[in-house]
Amino acid sequence: MNKTIIDLIGNTPLVKSMVLNTNPNVSLYFKLEGNNPGGSVKDRAAYNMIKTALDTGQIDKTSKLIEATSGNTGIALAMIAGIFKLEIELVMPVNATKERVQTMKAYGAKVTLHPDGIEGARDYVIEKVENEGYYTFDQFANENNWKAHYKTTGPEVWRDTNGEVTHFVSSMGTTGTIMGTSSFLKEQNKNIQIVGVQPTDGSSIPGIRKWAEAYLPKIFNASKVDRTIEVSEDEAVAMTKRLAKEEGIFAGMSSGGATTAALKLANELESGVIVSIICDRGDRYLSSDLFE
């Protein structure tokens, strides 16, 4: 039983919707990524990015690490950097929830809050890397982000649905989850439909983005997504509350967004097996007005 905290990353539960899905011919499953030790799907990518960089000699214990993050990747990187005794600075938008900042600090990271959103945080990191000798994992361009999901998330979805999954639904931020899972699932069955979730114009949903061309993640490949469904901020908030109240699943707003899309899909289908990612836990948002 010599398990370490790292052994608890992945193999998250897949649970069936008992209330929200009302189509009797469709099974909707939620993959509970909040059950990872760092509380989100980002544990997978963070571990793969750090471990690969260490194994290949790109970084060592003397490296000055820095990363721009809207929250969950930062928490995961802080946790895993701490385990490997690495120093890391995490740069976040100034409106990040208090819980996220405090969690990163608890894991030993330095936190810098940037006034110009995630784009500003990304620009700040680039400057530090170019001028001050820092190393960034750059989750938006790092192949080991999506490869984490090719190695773990995709195989788990396939295994836990006994190969019966017909649709996979995921919010799109860095797009690592959807890129890696799509790559694996399409190898098993090219007919599996991969559905990405984006915010409607003007909607702000943490963890889901519609990037301007200059900031589009380099790991994103549009051919790996069969369809995108747009979700409004109001829909995402309402569904996040319903997830907690009706399904007992306490999650963040991006999970409410993904669930909204998954239910729209379920209502269209004659039959199918949908897997939707619940990417983190709701306790990360208690200081925001999400659950007011």
UniProtKB/TrEMBL annotation:
Keyword list, A-Z: Amino-acid biosynthesis, Cysteine biosynthesis, Pyridoxal phosphate, Transferase
GO MF annotation list: cysteine synthase activity
Location of the Tryptophan synthase beta chain-like PALP domain: 7-280
Pathway listed: Amino-acid biosynthesis; L-cysteine biosynthesis; L-cysteine from L-serine: step 2/2
Cited InterPro entries: Cys_synth, Cys_Synth/Cystath_Beta-Synth, CysM, P-phosphate_BS, TrpB-like_PALP, TrpB-like_PALP_sf
GO BP annotations, alphabetical order: cysteine biosynthetic process from serine
Cofactor dependence: pyridoxal 5'-phosphate
Residues with PTM N6-(pyridoxal phosphate)lysine: K42
Superkingdom of origin organism: Bacteria
Catalyzed chemical reaction(s): O-acetyl-L-serine + hydrogen sulfide = L-cysteine + acetate
EC number per UniProt: 2.5.1.47
Keyword Transferase belongs to the record: yes
Chain residues that bind pyridoxal 5'-phosphate: N72, G173, T174, T175, G176, T177, S254
Pfam families, sorted: PALP
Family: Belongs to the cysteine synthase/cystathionine beta-synthase family.
Name of the featured protein: Cysteine synthase
